[in-house]
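Service request form, structural biology core

Requester: graduate student, group of Dr. S.
Request type: structure prediction, single chain
Budget code: on file
Notes: please return the result as structure tokens.

Sequence provided:
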Amino acid sequence: MPTPPAVTVPDRPAPARVVAAGSLALSVTVVPAFLTGALSRRIGDDLGFGAGAAGAAVAAFFVGAGLLAVPMGRVTERIGPALALRAGTALSGACAALVAVAVHGWWQLCLALFVAGSAVGLVDTGAARAFGDVVPDGRHGSAFGVKEASVPAASLLAGVSIPVLVDAIGWRPAFALGAALVPLVWAVVPALPARHMPTGGDAGGRAPAAFVLFAVGVGLGCGAATAAGTLLVPAIEDRGWAEGDAGLLLAAVSVASIAVRVAAGRRSDTRPGGAWRELTALLAVGAAGALLLAASDAGAAGVVGALAVIGGGWGWTGLAYLTAVRVGGQRPAAAASVVLTGLSVGGAAGPAAFGAIASASSYRAAWLAATVALVLGAAAIAAARRRLDPPRARSQHPG
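Core staff response, request fulfilled:
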């Protein structure tokens, strides 16, 4: 009887490479939004619009991500994580290239950013699937923490280096350089199996209303934290700080946010049952920081408040993905899309709402509004936990 031919089974990629691929893909995919924000004055001067229109263009990116997050999650469940990561970065890169060569008006910029935002849905949900397939359960917190830390890290790098770069080459070549990063992502993303996941129902077979409540909590927290980052420099300047000092404070709190995202993820891996508690605790820390900024003048209290509201109040996004994916069962991409929807809606609406409050009343009123939003976000997530993660289920997974 002839011996059947040997079947070659592809090696499972190293977890570190999968985490690096997801983090790099996310960083590259959000480049169009970061560039538009960092170069808004130059782009507006060239295309003929002001700061308000530039903010609306950036909001279009988040609107695209939020509206299409769930459909993109379904696509990821069908095509697999590797193709989702590559397709998402390719779509974002194509939009960046389009901005570089073909955008000559505000509405064209908004359309390109809307489409680029939709690519985040493929990348975020692709990373969630890849982590679920390859990264050991006891390292999921660290994986999501590193992935989410890549976003403020990329933003910080863009804010520091892009203005210098653009002085030499102009804003359109900067978008072209962003598009040129796509092949790097494709080279890093490993081959991953496109396992067909169950379709239909909600993300994990649990109460859809509870996932909606979770997304609402995420959106409130994200809106407040994003607004805090947007308002921090002008609010501190309004209290007498020099522009350079305010910028240094923003850089410091951005570094704090990066550190908290990584540390919170690692901590959730070593403390069973801690992810939900840490998520709500960080939102509470953010609320305390916003309240301190509302109640105090510039000085040491302002520094502490800024560190708390951005470092803590914006350091929980990895935990949000982690908790959603853990209760999402066999559909991690669908669960991740719920978080992305909340983050995107909050990222689009928060700065506009709180900026309007600051303009109509004062920065103190805006910080108070941020405090309320962070408290309500923590309460909504705590309420969702009672439906999504009942006591008997908590003994079945570490978060």
